[in-house]
Amino acid sequence: GAGVSQSPSNKVTEKGKDVELRCDPISGHTALYWYRQSLGQGLEFLIYFQGNSAPDKSGLPSDRFSAERTGGSVSTLTIQRTQQEDSAVYLCASSPDGQKNTEAFFGQGTRLTVV
Amino acid sequence: KQEVTQIPAALSVPEGENLVLNCSFTDSAIYNLQWFRQDPGKGLTSLLLIQSSQREQTSGRLNASLDKSSGRSTLYIAASQPGDSATYLCAVNGIRDYKLSFGAGTTVTVRA
Fold this sequence. Notes:
- The complex is a heterodimer.
- Helix content of chain A is 0%, strand content 50%.
- Chain A is mostly beta strands.
- In chain A, strands 2, 4, 5, 6, 9, 10 and 11 form a seven-stranded mixed beta sheet that branches.
- Chain B is an all-beta fold.
- Helices cover 0% and strands 60% of the residues of chain B.
- The termini of chain B are far apart.
- Classes of the chains: A mainly beta, B mainly beta.
């Protein structure tokens, strides 16, 4: 597709369940970012991928959060044993190369609600 | 650690006025700075990208300046319209880390 695609756009889950959020970056973009935006808050960095490797996982809030990227393309963010404080919009972005002067493009986000 | 601050947090102006949004950052070792727009419940739309070697970028009614040495960028929106109402975010792509560091945003309301 022409832009960054995220699915699902909305997800309601029960507390304690696991969820998977998907990000399809722009074709050919090697850098991929995950951010979280809680209601009324700024963007919180979660993880960065360069290709399939994640040199910066510093933002993952707990060991319940994990992410992977395969084939230098699609990325999945997994949250295990979800808690109500995990409710937020999860945003994905990609850029041609995160270590150079390149523009980042964001998807529309996945709104996660934990009930 | 890169810290990005945006002032003011909110701004309300009558239609036709020029808007001035400020962004400051603490670490001048950056690849670029990017301004985004976010409408309620939506993702981020890229407005302007300024590379570290540039002083300004323009797109239509938008103009963004960058003073890397002092850690400041300003977004100017000329002749504001109600459709400009949104939250504007600046993000710095730092050399010393692997992420875009965001400010908290400026929420703009343009009154008709």
